Amino acid sequence: MNKIHVMNEVLANKIAAGEVVEKTMNVVKELVENSIDAKSNKIRIDLIDSGVKKIKVTDDGVGMSKEDAVLAFSRHATSKLSTLDDLFNIESLGFRGEALPSIASVSKLTLKTCDKQEGTMVFVNGGKIEKIEKSDLKEGTTIVVEDLFYNTPVRLKYLKNLYIELANITDYVNKMALSYPNIQFTLTNNDKVLLNTDGSNDLLKVIYEIYGSQITKKMIEIHGENEDYAITGYISYPEVAKTSRNHIMTFVNGRFIRNNELNRTIIECYHTYIPKDKFPIVVFNIEVDPILIDINIHPTKMDIKFSKMNDLKDLVQQIIKPKLKALSLIPNITSLELSEVTSEKISAYPNEEEQTNKYTVSEAMTLDLNYEKEKILPQENKDPDIQLENDRIKYMKPVGIVHATYIIAENEDGMFIIDQHAAQERINYEKYLKAMSREDDIMTQLLVPISIELSNKEFIIFNENIELFKSIGFEVEKFGVNSILVRAHPYFLPKGYEEMAIRKIIDIICEKEEFHKDKFIEKTAITLSCKMAIKANDVISLEEAEILLNTLRKTENPFTCPHGRPTIITYTKYDLEKLFKRAMN
Ligand code: ZN
Ligand code: ZN
Questions:
Q1: CB neighbour list of residue 138: distance below 8 Å, 6 or more residues apart
Q2: Which ligand is nearest to the CA of 563?
Q3: 438: CA distance to ligand 2 center in Å?
Q4: Would you state the pLDDT for residue 98?
Q5: How many domains does the chain have?
């Protein structure tokens, strides 16, 4: 029986969205997906000039008969599936059966294939079959696409940037290699090997081929499942974070997909571990019953909707968060180099406006937080619910302070450099967050109500949302023209911040954003943690430094400040020995 049958017209039209062949990447994608469908174990992609001059895809899969090979160039022929519903139920990728005729219509295409009985060669020039001959090919299929778009000069001009074409193809082949670690992928451009995986079904080996050994060492295996979803894969240590979110790669049943909500959930797990504009490397394989997903097909991308999205999000968090929590994340000097910190401007970190804080140390000291009297430096923590055995970092003895900013400390593992401001920010942040997140409706009654003057626009917004303020624990009322009177506020606000908080909430509503109490608390905790921390250039004693370090050690994530900057870096003993040539290699 011929493997190719003519597919139904509806499907053909739905899929033929007119963008099937636009870039060299689309051609590579079509050919590679055909090779995967043909159950290949090895797929080799050789490009000349990023594929503009020549694309050759060689596989060892199930070849075609002579009849199928010819039929493959007629429109709407496909061996893949007959209805859209099949898309995720069958192990087929190359569902756009009309792609081959499309590619052939804008290039000089040679197809060689062998179905174990006879070898066939078909040559198509600008869509016209010019030759059908016997071929000496013994297995699989080889397709050579030359002079792409030679007969469509308009499109050719889009291909001017060979570097971008190549980057897109590499990106695509990387993703295929990650989703099919059992297939050996080779990618070359002008004879230079860009990717070469071994097909041994070892995902970490594929990651190694793509990212190199330094990053591979910083990948953590993950797995977990609930009733509907099973996830396996790898996530990176926060310190190897990338500047682009392109390295968060999710695959559903072996197919690369995009789902913004899923990506956001993954990024949120890294919240405060990495700066806002940095992203982890993540390879996620999600196994799910196809009935739980809804696909929005577009020829160039794959958007997916999950039913039970919240369950999936919970699972993702359950998998990632404990892994990050269990890590020791003090970057040492060698890993800092690979984390792009040295190659990128430090300004890539969010600006904390440390310099423009409106509270100085002494002011901050006198600010009376209403839920806890506190000094500028934390007290040695006697809190019984902090378990000592959970210390994430060993004891470090401070031995000096450099530039009134960096504490130098040591223990038997090496030397540590701690940013005093970042360290205290982390301590404050966790403390404030905990205090503010208390699930009770306690309100703080003010002895003297505070009056706040608003602009007329703000006043209108306040009036429209007065119920919202009441619902989160404010006792507020209108007071004269464009003014409001605050008689009580939610417990979570520290004294002195009522006005700031109310203005902030109004700002949020003004920007037509939805007000989320949790997010608001989170942001307030970050802002406060910075304002209330010792600054760079504030002189502290070694005793105070010791208390600071001991308290930092007991935080949940002592390794980064709430903005994602590192609090602590280390020269391990071995690093030092290496640097002073006491240790070789
Ligand atoms: Zn700060
Ligand atoms: Zn910070």
A1: 114, 119
A2: 2
A3: 24
A4: 62
A5: 3
User: Mean pLDDT across the stretch 156-164?
Assistant: 70
337 assigned to some structural domain: no
Give dist(CA 9, CA 562) in Å, integer: 55
Per the structure block, which two tokens stand in for 501?
């908080």
Q: How far is the CA of 518 from the centre of ligand 1 (A)?
A: 21
Do residue 191 and residue 216 come from a single domain? no
Is residue 549 within 8 A of residue 567, CB to CB? The reply is: no
In a domain, 207, yes or no: no
Same domain, 313 and 235: yes
pLDDT tens figures, 426-473: 998 998 888 777 666 678 888 888 888 888 888 888 888 888 788 778
Q: Residue 126 contacts by C-beta under 8 Å, 6 or more apart in sequence?
A: 105, 106, 107, 108, 150, 151
Nearest bound ligand to the CA of residue 423: 2
Strand 108-114 with 128-134, pairing: unpaired
Question: Based on the domain organization, do 18 and 141 belong to the same domain?
Answer: yes
Last residue of a domain, one of 169, 196, 223: 196
SS3 55: strand
Ramachandran area for residue 462 (φ above 0: left; ψ -120 to 50: alpha; else beta)? alpha
Q: What is the pLDDT of residues 12-57, one digit of tens each?
A: 433 443 445 667 888 899 899 889 989 999 999 999 999 989 999 9
CATH number, position 190: 3.30.565.10
**Could you tell me the distance, in angstroms and rounded to a whole number, from the CA of residue 539 to the centre of ligand 2?**
19
Contact 259, 227 (CB under 8 A): no
Domain hosting residue 161, numbered range: 9-196
State the Cα–Cα distance between residues 475 and 444, nearest whole angstrom: 9
Query: Are 77 and 159 found together in one domain?
Result: yes
CB 348 within 8 A of CB 243: yes
Distances (CA, A) of 94 to 124, 263, 455, 557: 20, 26, 59, 45
Q: Which ligand is nearest to the CA of 421?
A: 1
Q: What are phi and psi of 73, to 5 degrees?
A: -100, 5
- Name every residue whose Cβ is closer than 8 Å to that of residue 164 and which is 6 or more positions away in sequence: none
Tell me the C-alpha distance between 479 and 476, whole Å.
9
CA distance 32 to 541: 64
Residues 176 and 240 in one domain: no
**192 and 216 inside one domain:** no
In this predicted structure, the answer to whether residue 409 has a pLDDT above a threshold of 80 is yes
Residues 16 and 98: beta-carbon distance below 8 Å: yes
- For ligand 2, a single-atom ion, the residues with CB < 5 A are 352, 425, 561, 563
Per-residue pLDDT tens over the stretch 74-92 = 765 444 444 444 444 433 4
Judge if 88 and 191 occupy the same domain: yes
- DSSP state letters, 173-204: HHHHHHH-TTSEEEEEETTEEEEE---SS-HH
Max CA distance (Å), the chain: 96
Measured in Å, residue 566 CA sits from the centre of ligand 1 at 12
